Amino acid sequence: MSNAAQRSNRVLIVATIMVATFMVAIEATIVATAMPRIVGELGGFSYYSWVFSAFLLAQSTTTVIYGKLSDIFGRKPVLIGGILIFLVGSALCGLAWSMMSLVLFRLLQGLGAGAIQPVTTTIIGDLFKLEERGRVQGFMATVWATSAVVGPLAGGIIVDNISWAWIFWINLPIGIISIIAFMIFLKEDVAHKQAKIDYLGSVLFSISIVALLVMLTETDASAWILLSLFAVFVISGILFLRQEKRAPEPIISIPLWSRRLIATSNAATLLAGMALIGLSTILPIYVQGVLGRSPIVAGFTLTMLVVGWPLAVMLSGRFYRAFGIRRTLRVGSLLFPFGASFLLFLTPDSSPVLAGAGSFFMGFGMGLISLTSIVLVQDSVEWSMRGSATASIIFSRSLGNTLGATVLGAILNAGINHYAGGEAAAGLREALNQPTGLSALAADPAIRTVFNAALHWSFWGVVVVAVLTFFTTWLIPVAPSRKRDGAAVASEAASH
Predict the structure, then answer these.
(1) Are residues 223 and 264 in the same domain?
(2) In terms of domains, do 284 and 368 share one?
(3) Which of 25, 224, 426, 487 is most buried, judged by most C-beta within 10 A?
(4) With contact defined as beta carbons under 8 Å apart, do 331 and 316 qualify?
(5) How many domains does the chain have?
(6) What is the pLDDT of residues 429-484, one digit of tens each?
(7) How far is CA 218 from CA 54, 80, 418, in A?
(8) What is the mean pLDDT of the chain?
(9) Which of 245, 181, 164 is nearest to 17 (CA)?
(10) Which residues, in sequence order, are CB contacts of 42 under 8 Å at separation 6+?
């Protein structure tokens, strides 16, 4: 295989990828647990949300850039460079003296984290055939599920027993071990070539996407600020497209992203990301505020999501061989709205098991949609474009998460305004901002009824987006086959 990572030491490489991925995956949950203690020591509560936003903005924006750089310079140097930046940011976060400094260092952390998921996913595509990839991606999905459970526990232990700085410094030994292992075990044969990096395109893309994401996340800002951000997004976006059309090595290849397979896969992934973030943010609120259950029970309903996702990924190889990749994708896309529809049947008297069942089916469907989209896209391009193609899928999911949080949050607010009067709506929002607000809501039948109706507006939003995801997956060009193996089917998709 020309210009591809050699297939020796594959088990050791996968183990190292899992370690590096865990380091980034656990970051969100472990930091969220420690933030109250950090704010108590550093002050600056107004910057609370930006501790998370700065990381996610930098990570989302650089994903596509790192994907392209890995196609030019190889996976190994780009991945190691990203981990190094992440570790420098982690070390500085632990030394932060104010909330503003912490936000800036989290931004640096995110700049490094943007390399890890797209490049490691691309390496798996380099090392494993399609029929082998499902099992490996199942291991990766398990890493994300484990981090969701271990993160809060680890964060609580660290802040209760040692300095909060160690939630960041714990990354240092893990990252150093990962770098050493990649240097030893990951062997690449990359043809050296003179490449002109599209610096201007990178800057314009970053400006445009950051403006869009800030506009979507800071919806409470004044109208003129939102209009200014929209103008920056549009103008820089137009300039970026013009630059990419004439750049010899564009950061985003317009012809590549315009291919039917890649465009439809990205669209389906974006919509699926919108629906999942809606489920993740709204369902726990419903379980606590309407069903009156504990945070632990609410967490259980989302745990079913992280059980269904890796289970589907691990079983995908068997599904490909038994039913073909087309039927697997179609069934996965059907399970997605099927699971979402469970939300519509929730009432104040429902059992949390019903919510957990919906989460499980949505997670199982997402596992099949996500993996199948990635492997189809990876197998449709040559090595020199695989990093860019893989990064496009991951970027679409991140953008979908941001869009979904904004849109479904707006739907929830609209529902509250519709079912509650001005003072009642204000009182409801004030209660939600209190530590025991959800418990108080569940104890008040009148407010509970209003909250139930408003949340069902958001549930309908999740269902509509899930249905759109289902129809979009049917636009992905996959030739039908039951007798041929998955690789043969994917090769036909590549010709579309």
Answers:
(1) no
(2) yes
(3) 25
(4) no
(5) 3
(6) 666 655 455 666 666 677 778 888 888 998 999 999 999 999 999 998 876 653 44
(7) 12, 33, 23
(8) 81
(9) 181
(10) 96, 97, 98, 99, 102
